[in-house]
Amino acid sequence: MLFPKVTLVGVGLLGGSLGLALKARKLAAHVEGHVRRAASVTECERLGVVDHATTDLLSAVQDADLIVFCTPLARMRTLAEQCATALKPGAVVTDVGSVKGAVVTELEPIFAKAGAQFIGSHPMAGGEKTGPASARADLFEHAVCIVTPGTKSPASLVKQMEDFWSAVGGRPLRLTPDQHDSLVARSSHLPHVVAAELANYILSPAHPKEQPALCAAGFRDTTRIAAGSPEMWRDIALANRKHLARALGVFIEDLQEFQLALERGDSKAMDEFFETAKHRRDQWIGNGRSPE
Predict the structure, then answer these.
(1) Is the pLDDT at 43 greater than 60, yes or no?
(2) Which terminus of the chain has fewer CB atoms gathered within 10 Å of its CB, N or C?
(3) Is residue 170 classed exposed, middle or buried when 0-12, 13-18 and 19+ CB atoms within 10 A define those classes?
(4) Domain span at residue 225?
């Protein structure tokens, strides 16, 4: 698989890592990057995450065979509308957003009208550090990369996107957009909300000044993802609010059951709660489901 030109619309952690992976694996003859600020042009080229960077969106996507949107969710539709007329016929467009229902619904008709084809994607990779300086060529290795075709997506194009994510080291998984959003609401979006609330509550200035000193490795590990981009996570939560609200409701109910058992001093319920959690996590790790 070799693309003459791949354009990354947005060159942060994911976009920069994808650029490095494409170059390291010789999957693209030329990797172009679109960035918002002039200072980012110099940074991206200095880091080598792309071959050339520009703030000119139309120039960036012109003649591109594959365009990957690596921007915050809230900006995708506007950027798609701005660049659609500059795409060459038959160009393939995908994205790396962690919510798929709204993205597929909004972007698919925009690109179809322009003679291009859109297939949603979501590589389950990333980290709390952002920006091209944090990019790594191996970020997608062994990561589950979800492909979410629309109802009218050509089978050949879906296979091409699955092959693309395999080529950068990922493990493709095909889901409908709604299936994807329901699953990640529980496995990704809910944990971030929980980590953020732990940081908000435990590190609140309302507590004694000694409180932060008693936050050790367990607290640090549990709240690591709360250091992620607030803008990005605001957009994710709002875009997937239906599924996230449902998952949050069930989670709160489970915590309330634990609270009642704790107040009753129900040791049997306590044993079952912690034993079940340990067993399920150990089984998950043992099955090789944990990211490396």
Answers:
(1) yes
(2) C
(3) buried
(4) 179-286
